[in-house]
Each structure stands twice: as C-alpha cells, then as structure tokens.
Design brief:
By secondary structure, the protein is an alpha+beta fold. The chain has one domain: Nucleotidyltransferase, domain 5 (2-Layer Sandwich), CATH 3.30.420. It has three helices and four strands. The protein has helices spanning about 10-20, 75-90, 110-120, and strands at about 35-40, 45-50, 55-60, 95-100. The chain has a four-stranded mixed beta sheet, covered by helices on one side. The longest helix is centred in the middle third of the chain and has 18 residues, at about 75-90. Belongs to the universal ribosomal protein uL18 family. This is Large ribosomal subunit protein uL18.
C-alpha cells in the first residue's frame, strides 16, 4: 500500500514521516507496537497488537492520575512512559516496538521512550 501525501508544512511532513515508518514497523502478539501521540498540551501512549487491531494498554496525561500534576510537559511525558510500562508488565508485555508517530525522536517523544525503558519495557 502506497500513501501519497502532498503539500508543505509541519503537519504534512509529520504525516509523510509516519507513512514511511509504518511501512517497516508492525506490532505482533509477541512484540506489540508502542504508539506515541502528542499535542501541544498532552501525550498519549498506546500498546497495539496490529494482527488483531486492538489496543492492549493505554495511558495519557488526560487520565485522572494526572489531576494536580505539577511539573513540565517533559516530566509528564516521562511519567506517561513509566505508567504505561507498569500497565504493560501487569498485562504480561515485556517487549515492544516503538512507533514515534512521525514525530521527531526528541523532547517529549524521547521522554516517553525513556520512561518506558526505566519502567522495565524493552524497546
């Protein structure tokens, strides 16, 4: 399947990067895909089994666990990574393949990955 994305700008460049990455990255039952989505305010991380098309575990800064969280957005992103790692280990998932969603691997996206590694996931 080829996806052609035309245009200019940051959003189009991110979509182009994501399409290029998804050609190579596939989540399996043994090693599901850890997907990171970011907005200007929030971070969302999901662990997805692509063979069944289901979300196994999810965590985000929108959940009630983050009510009253004091810290920077990068600290919140790292905490999201740690929390999803804890949920994944409880669900019996130890290895994942990291899908940065077309975002550049820096800042908050890298903080989620670092938090997941510190939480015990093998990326």
């Amino acid at each position: 399947m080829t996806v052609q994305i035309f245009g200019k700008g940051k959003q189009v460049a991110r979509l182009r990067r994501h399409a290029r990455l998804r050609k190579k990255i596939v989540g399996t039952p043994e090693r599901p895909r850890l997907v990171v989505s970011r907005s200007n305010r929030h971070m969302v991380a999901q662990i997805i089994d692509d063979t069944k098309g289901i979300t196994l575990v999810s965590e985000s800064t929108l959940h009630n666990d983050f009510q009253g969280f004091e810290g920077t957005k990068s600290e919140a992103a790292k905490r999201v990574g740690e929390m999803i790692a804890k949920k994944a280990l409880d669900a019996g998932i130890t290895k994942v393949v990291f899908d940065r969603g077309g975002n550049k691997y820096t800042g908050r996206v890298a903080a989620v990955a670092d938090g997941a590694r510190e939480g015990g996931l093998a990326l």
